[in-house]
């Protein structure tokens, strides 16, 4: 890309947009002054970019159809073999379609990104391959990952493997479904409001949102850098711990990764929970639309943990119910700035996918293609930005500390917090022509218990704990102290070993 000296007319229009009265003579003086800058910009354009390397060759990609993609969970299939040995040797992996995978399209579920192909691999993908895993494709996700349901992806809905016609949970819809179907050993997800834990809950698999920054977010599309998390979805807790052990750690690019505290997560497996203290958060239950099967199933799971030797008490954290408003103020205005006013989030050091910025820069020309979820979110973000000068975003960022402190106070007395991952089980996927209210209800009904921990950055895991009405999975969420993923895994593994979760809950097999 070459840098061109601006015209007088361009400078006057720019000034007008910023409330400056720019005369022709002032614009001409400005142009003459900045002329020497042109050589510097041209030098930048001529230098080779500095992005993560591509270490492993890959074959051609294709979009599977028919029986090969019955549930709609694949957006593309490819074959990338990693190292011949390592802790993940023989493991098949799917990558959420928000991750940069060189030579394979990245759409983030969006029609406006169709045809975009990244030039580099996200570092976490290289880590998986270095450990011996095999990447076999990219999983479907919701449009710009802006939904907890399964109705907005440009490639169509993802059906729940355990309840056809119902959501697999979003926004990492395909990732949860592929693990539940047994087509992959692990799928990568992204979590801004629960997008790893919601599909884990609704599809009956294991998904963790690690402590913020533990897994590098380089080369992954997000919403707002202060709520973006990446993590694995697997069939078992032990496999989840194994994959996180490979994924965690600094990558040398992501400036959000400071003061990491690393553990050997697989050592937590099989340790038991005698003496562990677990707080059952009252506010996570009995909400206005909580399904009674979910509340009953999770309370029964708490009793099971108590029978395994843990001390289990009901506790109250009133601030928990303030988490969604705080999250919304950050996520909506943050995403508006990172997508509409600026093609990519700025003000942070890291890797910037320049070609993606170019594609997002033309988003305004195709804004009518956006689904209701994105339109509503961007309109509200634009409104609070323009008419309140960012007040609610800034205030929510300040209140983040009070919300975090409320959980930390409880975690000062307890090792873990416990509540339902989602208030209800998988709901039916609405038709494409559903009215705005129905579509928005479907897409955002599941985030009440999950999104607060995107704000506070605590590690949180969802594990299946039973079946409810219609044999739909129920998810149990365990929340730990920052950097204490091993404690989370220890309790989750103990519960998993205590019995077949599909035999638990009101509709479990007897």
TrEMBL record:
Residues 79-488 form the Amidase domain. It comes from the Bacteria. GO terms for molecular function: catalytic activity. This is Amidase. It comes from Bradyrhizobium betae.
